[in-house]
Amino acid sequence: MKALTPEEALEIYHAGPEAVVKTLCELSAAVVELSATIEHLKHRIKELENQLAQNSSNSNKPPSSDVFKKYKDLQSKSKRKPGGQKGHPGQTLQIVENPDYVTWHRVKKKCSCGHVLKDQTVQTYRRRQVFDIPPIKVQVTEHRAEVKTCPQCGQTHKAPFPEEVAAPVQYGSNLRAIAIYLRGYQLLPSQRTAELFEDVFSCPISEGVLDSILKEGSAHLEEPVERIKEQLKVSSPVNFDETGMSSNGDTYWLHTASTKELTYYSIHQRRGQEAMNDIGILPAYQGTAIHDSLSAYFTYQQCRHGLCNAHHLRELTFIKERYDQSWASEMIKCLLEIKHKTEKAREARQRQLSQRQIKYFERLYQSIVEKGYKANLLRDPPEGRNKRGRPKKGKARCLVERFDIHCQKVLAFMYDFNVPFDNNLAERDIRMAKLKQKISGTFRSEDMAHDFCRIRSFISTVRKQSRKIIEAIGTIFSGSPFIPVYG
């Protein structure tokens, strides 16, 4: 469409009223269509600007996606100084009384007076100790089972091999434990693990063998990890989270259930209720579930719920920065003030806030929610736009409604001091699995993903219970693996 020239306008004018009316109607329709397009593009530009403005401080994006810029942490930081705290035992090297080896350094020179000191009696000595690792070499133990023939009847008798010695040539339990430690705890990919075995232990080992060791370890851990799962069903609170993972190029979902002493991982093709039902913890759970606002969690009515306020603080920061809505700043201040009061009360060994404090914070919270509604009124779509369906609410309105509908869940940490303010516990457990994905890329098969989840569940739980990981992994191949028990 191009602009009319004066000559073309005069030609239409002289053509009579009908030509003028027709031209005006066409121009009016074009203006309406262009206005609708402009409104649509303005909305789309706003959405793209909002996406660009998101970072780890105001959304759920990871810190690794941030541009080189520091963001203020809204939650109060610890007042502790860097380094070891008072009473911490520390890790400084200390001289041991019974070293493994002693090397003497003799006095060989003469005294300045000319006396030879070589045969002089030693009065005392000074000590310095060097802690080092000797050259590491794989030891080969040959098992020889005797074969004897009875001289009376001629029957042959063979001594049995130990149960764990099942093949003519095999790797021992310590080597397999180290392989699982490197793959499941240090998160090394198979190629780098194989390189480490050859460089450090002078023991060439293939990636296929390492995968077989991982699979064998996973099979031995079926019962211990099932016990972890059963303990989580009767624990409270339990933190839940999920994140996308790649397996053989397809998108799967890694689910976790965590407490301070237990961790359980599971991988599934789905994210929502179907996966949660198949995993089997939430359908039977009756404690307090801490999670984000994914709607699938709310379908489990038999348990109590607590929402992650770290998510809320980030979303409120985004609304404050992008939309300049004052209610968001007030809600941030309100949530942090409640958090501060509950921490103080807990330090004072109180079991809950006073009823006066609770009522005050409830009224403050509701007044801020009302301000949020007023700042985000629902409006009809502009003329020329399709009016079918519900009008789009936007991030701010959706957040206000969540604060209103799920008020008790947002403030669960205020009513029950056992409920955490955020879901950081589960997010920290998820972060290690994401780190594995970042280092190694996709899992080569769904079975390998399941094996990793089982092994990582065991290792994370052992770590939380302050056990030595390599020793706990060593029990996997002993026939009686360590079973983590808490409570």
List keywords for this structure.
about 475 residues; alpha/beta; 5-stranded mixed sheet; two-stranded antiparallel sheet; 7 strands; elongated; Transposase
Classify the beta-strand content into a percent band.
5-15%
Q: Number of helical runs?
A: 16
Following the backbone from N to C, one meets helices and strands in this order, namely HHEEHHHHEEEHEEHHHHHHHHH
Question: Mind summarizing the main beta sheet?
Answer: 5 strands, mixed
| Unreliable stretches covering 5 or more consecutive residues | none
Distance between the termini: 76 Å
Q: How much helix, percentage-wise, in residues?
A: 40-55%
Mean pLDDT, as a whole number?
Answer: 88
Shape: elongated
Q: Give the strand tally.
A: 7
How do the strands line up in the largest sheet? Answer: 5-4-3-6-7
Using only C-alpha atoms, the radius of gyration works out to: 34 Å
Can you describe this structure in just a few lines?
With 487 residues, this protein is α/β, with parallel strands linked by helices. It has helices spanning 6-14, 17-53, 173-185, 190-201, 207-220, 222-233, 273-279, 309-323, 326-347, 355-375, 394-405, 407-410, 412-415, 424-440, 446-464, 469-474; strands at residues 147-149, 156-158, 238-247, 250-258, 263-268, 288-291, 304-307. Strand 3 and strand 4 (250-258) form a beta hairpin.
